[in-house]
Here is the input.
Amino acid sequence: MKNLISLTCLLSAVALSHPARAEVGAKDLTLAGLSDCVREAMGAGSVEDAGGAVVLSCNAEKAKVLFNFLGKKVPAEVVQDTNGKFENRPFGNNACYHRIEDASGKSANDFRCDLILVTGDALKD
Here is the structure.
């Protein structure tokens, strides 16, 4: 819980350090999508301590919006694995995924984003 509070404070400080602008561009929309994903992950408890990193995951509509915003700059890579066929948009240590086929080859339309915040030893007890 202490780690989650520290993470919340860090993300709030970052958000407050970027003043609002009247003109909204693709970068601003993508940053808003990232923020929405983080909020959803924290609200849903989709925050995982990965030892030196924190993984925040959002699904469904928030992930779909972010996946589409990223499409302006990040091309999708099509990947097939045991869980199905995916369009992946990797960016930095993060990625958003669009599952287009399930494991049996049936059409699918599921979205997920995993945002990885590398913390090193800063949040260790």
In short: Residues 2-118 form one domain.
